[in-house]
Write a structure and sequence with these properties.
3 domains, elongated, six-stranded mixed beta sheet, DNA-binding, homodimer, 12 helices, six-stranded parallel beta sheet, Rossmann fold, alpha/beta
Chain lengths: 332, 332
DNA sequence: AATGTTACCGCAAACGTTTGCGGTAATAAT
DNA sequence: ATTATTACCGCAAACGTTTGCGGTAACATT
């Protein structure tokens, strides 16, 4: 277990001062090109790498971003993180990923750790139980920008990047109308989630406006299993009127699909099916499920550029909405 | 953007020395309980939190583990990470997650970053193209233990924690035999992957020994789509003999299931289906798919205890295999 | 009264950087 | 020949901790 090379070691070997080595390594104009050459060569040779702890202690900049998500087993977050990482790499930042397990306590711990580590910025999808956003604002005071994404707080003046819930719900609804369904079941998530309210409200609005005579029923499920049960009990025995189901999320869709398979029904013939998704789950079935896309990747790109703006100082709180688009499967 | 509280600030306010504050905060016996009380109260009040960079600079210990995986959109890795995090939290370690995107270049960068940050240890599932393991051994020299899991190198003398590929393949094969299938299709992954070889070899061995007259066919697919195509073309038109399909992985299973849905076949009646999986994908279908479980969670627990052993110094390279168990769905 | 113990506490160096400032020698301008 | 300019380079402080060592006062022991 040998020691890591330091500026000091290089300085001693070359009979120059530590400051000279430090400056040479970052191409400071005060140092002659001759000296620079010597120093760089030796540094290369002994594989010198600056100690990030010392740098941070001195400069208070960590050059790393934190991404905090409730869960990792989620294609949406995964593609969000990919997008962030792509951009961060280009700017010389690294990104560390935290997982809150949807537990506000753990979330707080993570936040604390981010503060201690003086991360350069935080991207966070808050837990569904997060109510107190004071700690987040506090981070901003400490000079650490916070970008909320996907799951964002109600609070107005903070940076939020969200999927276009209303838009996604409306294009799904429009597709249902376009295909001429008269009997529609909408399955939504937990009533208390803001995402549910947004999607539900818009979905109903578009439906009602599009066709006042439609037979529309909406229900709420808090889990995949509940969605399965609801679907099972709410699919009419005789599908005389053209019947369609809208699933607000992947979780709901998974449950509903299980029920559909159980009843041995085949979209799009027996019934129409459409959801809102990032695309992973819909692609597992045949025919693939048609869905309004919520792209984690897009969101990531948007979030990153927002972050850069914050870091450069020229920022005011802003909410950005990513519009979604219809991805055609064969389920409706 | 106000400054963070430091030992110095506390010391000044209380007219004691920095060393006294430092010691008081860690309950050093040299400090009177009276002084300790004062200091702790003030520290609490102004929310003092030690600067991890300063600590690391001084002590060279980071109290954090790195977990490096090729991908995050993977239930298996997700549960592995959960297990590590659970244990790490108890021991006062935090864990940071890195994603190599299955790119050896990025993997190298991550390794480098881990070295710079002097992480306390690394858990890594290497990329499928990683050939040079010298950098890993070098980390060990630097005093950073490396535990390989899931995707591990061939090299003998390192710490490896793997799923029991042979065992999983054999219990799946036994289940097929037990249910009396005479016509079996085994779909495996890329021929070059060691995991494929292990599972294939054992699967065939058990099959042949169990029933020499069985009609067994094995194929290889490098993607989900390929698995779908293969399944489509290899399912007999007339399923007179009892027919079963074995899918080596989730990826394969996803493709195969699409083909099965496409052909409107229903397990377990039309054909038997069994896989090796962590359990996420199998639960999406009805009936749920029966599978030999490879538990990321178990692996994580094993890996962590191995890590602790390494850190305490009492370690020699060792390979640990986690045996799998059959999880009953209704597909066979 | 001199010495030994004990209980507290502070000094100062060290970890590896960065950076403002000042210094020296060589060269250019007066 | 003096002064200004330039090109290089080093000193030293600072970032926030930890920790060995030494010091002082109070008390207990001879």
């Amino acid at each position: 277990m040998r020691q890591n090379p330091t500026l000091k070691k290089i300085a001693e070997k070359l009979n120059v001062s530590i400051s000279t080595v430090s400056r040479a390594l970052k191409d400071h104009p005060d140092i002659s090109s001759e000296t620079k050459k010597k120093i760089n060569e030796l540094a290369e040779l002994i594989e010198y790498d600056p100690n990030p702890y010392a740098i941070n202690l001195r400069t208070h900049s960590s050059k790393e971003f934190a991404v905090v998500v409730p869960s990792l087993s989620n294609f949406f977050y995964h593609s969000f993180i990919s997008a962030i990482e792509e951009d961060a790499r280009d700017y010389g930042y690294s990104v560390i990923i935290y997982r809150s397990s949807n537990d506000p306590k753990i979330e707080q711990q993570i936040l604390k750790s981010c503060r201690h580590k003086r991360v350069s910025g935080i991207f966070i999808a808050i837990t569904s139980e997060t109510t107190d956003i004071a700690p987040f604002l506090k981070l901003d005071i400490h000079g650490i920008p916070v970008i909320f994404f996907d799951k964002v707080p109600q609070y107005e003046s903070c940076n939020k990047i969200c999927v276009g819930d209303e838009h996604a719900a409306s294009i799904a609804a429009e597709e249902i109308l376009k295909k001429g369904f008269r009997n529609v079941l909408g399955i939504f998530g937990d009533k208390n989630m803001s995402i549910t309210q947004a999607r539900l409200q818009k979905f109903m609005e578009v439906m009602r406006n599009g066709n006042p005579e439609i037979d529309l029923k909406t229900v709420h499920a808090r889990s995949s299993e509940e969605a399965e049960q609801l679907t099972l009990s709410l699919i009419p025995d005789y599908l005389e009127k053209k019947f369609a189901i809208f699933c607000m999320s992947d979780e709901i869709l998974a449950g509903t699909m299980k029920a559909i398979q159980r009843k041995r029904l085949k979209p799009p013939h027996d019934l129409g099916l459409i959801g809102i998704s990032d695309g992973m789950i819909p692609s597992l079935f045949y025919p693939e499920i048609t869905y309004a896309e919520t792209s984690g990747y897009n969101l990531g790109k948007l979030a990153y550029s927002r972050m850069m703006r914050c870091i450069s100082g020229s920022s005011f709180a802003q909410t950005i909405i990513d519009q979604s688009k219809l991805v055609m499967g064969g389920s409706i």
